[in-house]
From TrEMBL:
It comes from Marinobacter segnicrescens. Residues 9-125 form the Transposase IS200-like domain. The lineage of its organism: Bacteria, Pseudomonadati, Pseudomonadota, Gammaproteobacteria, Pseudomonadales. SMART domains: Y1_Tnp. This is Putative transposase. It comes from the Bacteria. GO terms for biological process: DNA transposition. GO terms for molecular function: DNA binding; transposase activity. Pfam families: Y1_Tnp (PF01797).
């Protein structure tokens, strides 16, 4: 089966997943996690990107990053993060070789309908993996900072957060309720399927809109089957 091409759409948030080589651990000690987050903060500022959500699991990372008009910015970010982490770990462990899988996965997100669900999906990873019983107890995700329990200078507020309340406290409380109600849903299935295949996290109408914007066919249609 041919490998699905990666698509980056200017101005859209993107769900990104990068896994350790052969699913082996990438982060073992606290310093490993912190080093990655320090580099994420540095390079997102350098490249002018916004980070809406993140979660560092032991053998993979999830990021939700908004693309700029400079389409090389996200690839540069991922190259810098992967390269620095590899050199850091290899130096400490006196080893050589790749730390990561060769290609990260990326899925442009329909901001209005899926962005907050993607952030929730990312931040609930440790809960669904049985690592913690509540998202705020996991120190290596953006959730605690999002609801005001931790500081994070490198975290940006998703535009759809504004619809949750007129002030920061009410937005935090409503987002917390939204995440707490985050049992497995149909949107979770769509998010997982989209990132696995480098497709848009969206409905058909939004796919058509993005294809018109970028002038490329990015989703495969069944022959002769009309779009709804």
């Amino acid at each position: 089966m041919p490998r699905q091409a990666r698509v980056i759409v200017p101005g859209l948030p993107h769900h990104i997943v990068q896994r350790g080589h052969n699913k082996q651990p990438v982060f073992i000690e606290n310093r490993d996690f912190q080093y990655y987050l320090d580099n994420l903060q540095e390079w997102k500022h350098t490249l002018g990107l916004e980070v809406f959500s993140y979660c560092l699991m032991t053998n993979h990372v999830h990021l939700v990053v908004k693309a700029t008009d400079e389409l090389t910015a996200i690839p540069q970010l991922m190259k810098r993060l992967a390269g620095r982490q590899t050199r850091f770990v290899n130096k400490i462990e006196k080893r050589t070789g790749s730390l990561w899988e060769g290609r990260y996965k990326i899925s442009p997100i329909d901001t209005d309908h899926y962005l907050l669900s993607c952030c929730r999906y990312v931040e609930l990873n440790p809960v669904k993996a049985g690592m913690v019983d509540a998202a705020e107890h996991y120190p290596w995700s953006s959730y605690a900072a999002r609801i005001g329990l931790a500081d994070c200078d490198g975290l940006d507020e998703p535009p759809t957060m504004a619809a949750l309340g007129t002030d920061s406290q009410s937005r935090r409380e409503r987002y917390q309720a939204f995440v707490s109600d985050g049992a497995f849903s149909e949107q979770d299935r769509q998010i997982r399927a989209a990132i696995a295949r480098n497709k848009l996290t969206s409905g058909h109408r939004f796919v058509d809109e993005v294809e018109r914007r970028i002038g490329l066919r990015i989703e495969t249609r069944a022959p002769g089957r009309p779009r709804k």
